[in-house]
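Progress report, Aim 2. The chain analyzed during this reporting quarter is listed below.
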Amino acid sequence: MADLFEKLQTRMGPLGIHADDAHGYYTFPKLEGPIGPRMKFRGSTKLNWSLNNYLGLANHPEVMKADADAAAEFGMAYPMGARMMSGNSDYHEQLEQNLAEFINKPDVILLNYGYQGVLSAIDALVDRHDVIVYDAESHACIIDGLRLHIGKRYVFKHNDIDSLKVQLNRATKMAEETGGAILVITEGVFGMSGSQGKIKEIIDLKKEYNFRLFVDDAHGFGTMGKTGAGTGEEQNCQDGIDIYFSTFAKSMAGIGAFIGSTPNVIKFLRYNLRSQIYAKSLPMPMVIGSIKRLEMIKTQPEHKENLWKIVKALQSGLKDAGFNIGVTTTPVTPVLLNGTIPEATHLTYDLRENHNIFCSIVVYPVVPKGVIMLRLIPTAVHSLSDVDETIKAFKSIKHKLDSGEYRKETLASAD
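Predicted structure tokens for the chain:
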């Protein structure tokens, strides 16, 4: 018989096997100082492109005051208990109402966290008779929700409507056999590639197929659409999204999340969403702070305008310099290079130590083997000079990568 702890050492995974060399530098790095484009990393200031602070609200004076005032009045413990039992408040309900009005949905349920919210919502919405059809590049929270589903599930190729039709045909036959229903899941903005989900085209398929559509719009809320109401607004099809999810962790620069849908669906989730029924209510400072953040998104469009000024300058500058940024049509900006995991670390070390630029490094298994993705998240508080500095540095590291300077067998040492 094996020992459980000993078995764990053989199951570290493709990233975990590098933990001893990578931890604290390539994985689990510590960014310090005030949140913004310039932060401290291992004692020196870096130009930072690795925070989902799209609108620059994280330490905006109005936001920080709202957070501080709410913490001073209520502390971090209030309200105590789960919302169903003792943790509800007028502020929680006000935030839900404000969100519903903003995203043009009849009702909203507030969630403690996005990851657990999506996972638990999928678990609650479908039973063993139902069939799920989902995009191949769905976020891990969706995949983990699928793992809880004991019924059938079918995956369609990323943003491939013909593939989706094939899987809907399979799902329809299965649902007819089981007496179940069909749930299609996609994302508004895919967080690695920056591509938009083909929401409008998926909704059009409702003319041929009977299904409900769940959209995870974590990266779209606040950044996409005329008012920032998300990718459904951007594609002029918000009404066709049956279950709209987003998180406060991106544009709202906070903690929490929400789901918008019909009153009956929201009522069902209030009484069946296990991650909320059995968890402590979202603390009051985070609720009041989110009310303030949403108000600023609605009344201060300059934040979104500044974001898109930087997005356009960064993406056009990278393309003009010959970089492959994939098919992004959103603020998420991937820079795709060819190389091994050791090369990726040497490149990243050079970028951080010699050019003082910090961005996320993404390698297999998140992207295919042989691909290095440098993922940039522009924000409203970056500057055009930040863009110019970054493109200049990227030209230098790409030249070194192409010439073989990073071709090593081992990871670059961070010591």
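The chain has two domains: 4-54+302-403, 61-299. The chain has a mean pLDDT of 95. These observations will guide the mutagenesis work planned for the next reporting period.
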